[in-house]
Amino acid sequence: MNKFRGLISFAITMVFLLSVFSTAEAAKKVPVASEKDPVIFVHGFTGSSSSFDNLKQWLVSQGWPANYLYAIQYSDTTGSSVDNAYELQSFVKNVLRQTKASKVDIVSHSMGGLSTRYYVKYLEGAQKVDDVVTLGSPHHGTNSSYFGLWTQGAREMVPGSAFLNDLNSVDETPNGSDTSAPIQYTSIYSSADTVINPYTSSIINGAENVEISGVSHSGLLTDSSVRPLIQAGLEDGGKNTN
Description:
alpha/beta, 8 helices, globular, signal, lipase activity, Lipase, putative, Lipase_EstA/Esterase_EstB, AB_hydrolase_fold
C-alpha cells in the first residue's frame, strides 16, 4: 500500500512539473508587441517600392521587426498625389490590420512626401500616423516638374500650383487627432539635389528640417549618412512647432 501511495505521489508530482513547464514554454511563444510603430515607405515620381530594400534591411539591424516594414507600390507612379493618397490610406489600413498596431510611421521619398502629407491633412492620416520623415520632397514645388507636364503628378509639383497652394495652406504640419501626441515631422534634404530645384523647396514650416550636402536625390535612399537621420525621425526626433 505504501508503495502504491508513493507511485501516486510521484505521478502527481510529474503531472504538476509538466504542467508548469508547458505553461512556461507557452509563455515564451506569446508574441510581444513591438515598441516601435510599423514603418511604411512611400516612393516618388516613377519610383518603386524596391527603392527602400536597403533601408529596410538597415532598420532591421537597428531593432525594427522585419514584419513591421512595408513599402507601397503606387498603381500610377506619375499620377496625382491625391489619388496616391487614397491608395496610401488603404495600404495603411491593411498594415494596421496585420500588425495590430494603432499608428504607423511614414518615410517618403520625393513626390511621395506630397501624397503622404495629403493623406495626413485630408484623409485618415490624422488618426493613424505618428511620425513623418520625407527625403528630398518638393513640398513647395520643383522647376524640374516642367519636363514632365504631360503627367498629373508633375503638374502638381509646379511651384505655385493649385495643389501645392492647398496642401501648404493654413498649417504645413497638421497636429493630428491626438492632442497629447502631435504628429512629428522631419524633412531631410540635400544641397546637392539637382532634381528638387531649388533644393530649399523641401523645407516644411514647423518641421525638423535637416539640410545635408554631397548626396544626390536618389542617394537620399541609400547613403549611409542619411540613415541615422531617418532613424532619429522615426524615434520621435521630428518637430511640430505650428
